[in-house]
Amino acid sequence: MDNLSGNSISVGLLGCGVVGAGVAKLLAQNGDLIASRIGMEIKLAKAADINPDAVADLNLADGVYTNDAMDVINDPTIPIIVELIGGQGIAKDFVLAALNKGKTVVTANKALIAAYRDEIAEACEKSGADFLFEASVGGCMPVIKSLRESLVSNKVDSIFGILNGTCNYILTQITQEGMPFDQALAQAQELGFAEADPTLDVEGMDTVHKLALSVALAFGTRVNYKEIYVDGITRITPLDITIAAEFGYSVKLLAIAKNHGDFVEARVHPTMISHDNLLSSVGRNMNAVKIVGDAVGEMVLYGAGAGMMPTASAVVGDIVDAARNIQLGCHPRIPAFSYQPAAIRELPLMPMDELVSRYYVRFSALDRPGVLSKVSGVLAKYSISIASVHQKGRHTEGPVPIVMLTHEAKEANIRKALEEVGSLDVIAEAPMLIRIEDENQE
Amino acid sequence: MDNLSGNSISVGLLGCGVVGAGVAKLLAQNGDLIASRIGMEIKLAKAADINPDAVADLNLADGVYTNDAMDVINDPTIPIIVELIGGQGIAKDFVLAALNKGKTVVTANKALIAAYRDEIAEACEKSGADFLFEASVGGCMPVIKSLRESLVSNKVDSIFGILNGTCNYILTQITQEGMPFDQALAQAQELGFAEADPTLDVEGMDTVHKLALSVALAFGTRVNYKEIYVDGITRITPLDITIAAEFGYSVKLLAIAKNHGDFVEARVHPTMISHDNLLSSVGRNMNAVKIVGDAVGEMVLYGAGAGMMPTASAVVGDIVDAARNIQLGCHPRIPAFSYQPAAIRELPLMPMDELVSRYYVRFSALDRPGVLSKVSGVLAKYSISIASVHQKGRHTEGPVPIVMLTHEAKEANIRKALEEVGSLDVIAEAPMLIRIEDENQE
């Protein structure tokens, strides 16, 4: 394959949306800088998009644009294919076609990897292709590189991630401005921090995709992302966040994974974390990941988890790794999923019912005598012991909030208890539950 | 060279102190885990220390220990030499000898690299050896890997680092417990967070070594570390920290570097940073580095900056990178100092006098009428405008503190002003100065 023409290496781009355009811009803008570091030019040889307008602002040289992705994949002078189409549809065929040809694939597509991990791994194994996906988790931050390279000697014990900028922006706005969810979402959409259809983000699925991938790399296992417990942020109210703050907690959409040796705990939900926890200071649309390993202890990475140029930075970092490997003839250099294929273990996911956690529960109660006694009676029945109660003043005509923080309890019990409490005639609406993560208590 | 015996690669260790012992332990303890990731065994083939007692607890196999480092360097079956002797003395000869033989060198020795950068670069260029030093800056965190790899497409604009765990521990204790410097240092020594001779740490030189290295990798230039402005933490008092907190600031020993295009700003000193700044939440003996790049924006890495196992984790990460490169025959893979040697520019350091900053100044004044007028008169003479004044109550017999926060002023002017104020007969001791870093105001 004629990969290296003089001292340059050719890259083909599939998808010229926001991130794709960012990659083209970054290669153009900082091409000299990159060459001064790596000693060769990264040349954008072909860029495919079904929509020619997508490349209108990119000043591509003649012949670079094509509307056919297979033109790029089949070009024998292009050893590096960058997939930035996204989603679980056509991107899959392109990625597998490129890998099957032994071409290095760089992608930011967590949804694709979560769904087709096995097919991708098999294609990599057969052809010896490198598969790089730094931008798929945590945007600009080296989460993948840390798990595959820097922390290679660590048994990773746990991962805690704020992995979705849209959710973190919305939660920050609810916290700082006291605005309700819908208004915060609308504002995030206006500012371009949220998609027109924000479902994948606010329901937590985007975070699940990223967690599944992180778990695979960290623990050396396969996870069916569809089995990971997920709860989004749509029900979080300013009231919950205000009360949480009074107890010394922030509310974050957290991806949590723990390595229990012969099983894996993985879950995504709104989580109360102490103000002492560095992750509680992560505001706006920023992301952060805390990785706990047996040798490193706690390590945190913080940065922009999305956005044109931060994501492009991660993609180009991968392109450069790929270019170095191809120039030196050393690929595959690192197993796609961090472990040797034969060493990857099948580990069951812990059923959510078995979780032991502390809980914040808010009941919307009619203001009548004996309510507290009824509610706490139900909790006691399910062996849930209450650490503190917070009852808002009786200023309103309607239902009043009763908030309880529990001691450690079993998820199965708290769910049954909440169902029973919810059916009491003094309770006006379905109770609100937020899990509390106290790392120091583990 | 018989590097790969079966599916293993041999490593030679020079120096079995705390970090060296940690590396031996980590390779033993997590050897299977590492092999399951990289597909080969990392074998500690030889370990040298002048003191045989150093290896007493390491359960080394027969024939591994030697008291002669050159035994290790000259062993043709060992392609990776890990230098953990430290310091600028004999370690230099060993590192250069190994590089000159074309062996990959892994080290944590920032003092050595700061002093002998040119000799090391020359040896690497001549022999094509890989030179890896992740553990030299920020302990377990991937600072070096981020600068050399992940951020390769970024023009790095600035770096802000808390790079010395001893100093950060002491400052945290002064802040949280109100203890004076000497007592906090003694406690740090008792807990093993500070050396018996803490001079390199508390005077800031260790941080300077790390900053010089970071500047070289980030900006593609050579810096003479001896020319970097440095001021340690020995004069910081609980009073300063208390007053800073009242103004909304933490005090940290910060390494600061900014890329001004045709010159470089680099300095190490106690710095007031806003409580909004993520770095202000970095407590205990932890380290953190904020890197600002044109594509990524702000990225922060946080973790243990020292200690046996965190540092060993970074060293073993490098060993694994080296092993992968040797196994695949692809070294040198990344230029030692991030840029191609021919692309490294000579950039002058900005003279400290030209710094423009906001300042915290504390005067110890005799409690007499007209003092404030005299002091502010001197500041006005040097065009230093005062943003706020804080005068502590007159409860004591002795001198009273007057604290001023200035607007932006030139370092040369503030120094002249403080000298003049210090010579006033109403001023009891040399004024205290702390620079304020307001990133948002830049």
From TrEMBL, chains A, B:
ACT domain location = 360-435
Q: Which residues bind NADP(+)?
A: 14-21
Matches recorded under Pfam families: ACT, Homoserine_dh, NAD_binding_3
Q: Which InterPro entries is this protein grouped with?
A: ACT-like_dom_sf, ACT_dom, Asp/hSer_DH_NAD-bd, HDH, HDH_cat, HDH_CS, NAD(P)-bd_dom_sf
Coiled-coil intervals, chain numbering: none
What reaction gets catalysed by this protein? L-homoserine + NADP(+) = L-aspartate 4-semialdehyde + NADPH + H(+)
Enzyme class per UniProt: oxidoreductase
Sites binding NADPH sit at 110
Pathway field of the UniProt record reads: Amino-acid biosynthesis; L-threonine biosynthesis; L-threonine from L-aspartate: step 3/5; Amino-acid biosynthesis; L-methionine biosynthesis via de novo pathway; L-homoserine from L-aspartate: step 3/3
Which positions in this protein are listed as binding L-homoserine? 195
Which keywords appear in this protein's UniProt record, sorted alphabetically?
Answer: Amino-acid biosynthesis, Methionine biosynthesis, NADP, Oxidoreductase, Threonine biosynthesis
Which residues carry out catalysis?
A: 210 (proton donor)
Q: Enumerate the GO terms in the molecular function aspect.
A: homoserine dehydrogenase activity; NADP binding
Question: What EC identifiers does the entry list?
Answer: 1.1.1.3
**UniProt GO BP:** methionine biosynthetic process; threonine biosynthetic process
Which family does the entry's similarity section mention?
Answer: Belongs to the homoserine dehydrogenase family.
- The identity of this protein, by name, is Homoserine dehydrogenase
